[in-house]
Amino acid sequence: MSEKRPKQAANKMGIEESGDASRFIQLFMAHERQLRFFVHQLLPDRNDVDEVMQNASVVLWSKFEELENDSEFIKWAYVVARYEVLAYRRQKARDRLILDPDLLTTIAQEISEDPIIVQDYQCALRECLEKLPEKDRRLVVQTYSHGLKVSQLAEELCRSVQSIYRKLSGLREQLSRCVKLSLAS
User: Fold this and answer.
1) What is the DSSP letter of 132?
2) Out of 57-66, 81-90, 149-158, least confident range
3) What is the pTM of this model?
């Protein structure tokens, strides 16, 4: 009797007995870190990334039968994740730190066309962050990894919101130049 229950539950969820669930889980787990990094490049806040990853995984599973070739899973997952990021961005459109949709699409396309660049970019960015003075590195991490709002940072640092935006803009440009130089060499 215990054998029938899982099959019945699986069938209610739309899982075929052919091993689609197992195949999906293997593919998803094999590529989850790459996919998470991809989403993190488009959304700096970890909580946002978690939410988009959750939404993307549901969509990926619900459309898994559309995947024709397992070797194309990550490219397919990038497309789904990009759409989920765009949908999430529409919900969060009031936040000034979110990237322009056209820029977001460009970044997503570049990353999805060459997955190796993701690893190279991640290493270069990590090295460039390490080169920043501690105070600047902390500001970048607090803003983009911890998801603090600029107004909160300004209050904590006893600075104007505008000065924080200017500082972050300069640091982004500095990191961008450093990453480009690192990737070029």
Assistant:
1) S
2) 149-158
3) 0.47
